[in-house]
Amino acid sequence: MTGAPVATVLIFKEKTVAKTLKRIDAGGIQIAALYSRRSGREPPRERAAKQKASSEAQRRMNQIYSYQKLELMLACNFPTAGSALVGALTFDDKHLPRSRAEAQQRIRYFLQLLRRERKKAGLPEPVVFWALEVLTSGRWHVHFVIDSTGQDLEILRRCWIYGQDIEAEKLRVDDESNHETLARYMTKELREAQEYECRPGLHGWSCTRNARRPEVETLTVPDDYELTPPEGCTVLIDENRQTEFASWRVIKYRFGGESARTPRARRRRRRRP
Question: Can you give the residue ranges of every domain in the chain?
């Protein structure tokens, strides 16, 4: 079994079990929370303190995860720099959609052509993320991220039959440009625009069905377990709280270069977000 080290489920005597570890594994990005575990035999004051620590840790972790779901999906499928192409496809005047629904229909046909061309070339089925955006002028274009095969630009030009304007560059994963900045850019329309059908409640982005989902696991660990990011990663968030009876810590970190990985195919207590 390969990849970065993850938490291991161990068996301890009941009296030593006192903390809960929750981890979200998105390949290149990980989020983990460690917080005090409650017991029915504790005094009310101590039990209340642990309940508060647990709730605060879960709230902070959920806040991070909800805001960055697209970021984690991108990291899960394209963990390393250069593993994907990032760009935009623009509709020309002749093929300009009249609505978001019509634009989505044309994207679906584009994906059919893309799968067909990949199959003819002996390449794997494409993993694609996309987000529609319409400018104030009314012109639609598509932000996309697609797994890199080395023949992508040629295939994109053959499959994008709705115009000649195609922009593409290799995915970057560094301090200036990474999965988070890409996710923010792809979802900026729903945050900023309130017209041209860009209403709150729209999903904002889509992906092909074969895209990997982050894995979520919850483990029971001993009271002296310490939550620390692995060596070689970049820590993005590290927050903790400590009281007389309880504590919690939430960290988010990113792997880069050779340390980046994709989630394992199977894992204990796995669920989709």
Answer: 14-74+213-259, 78-207
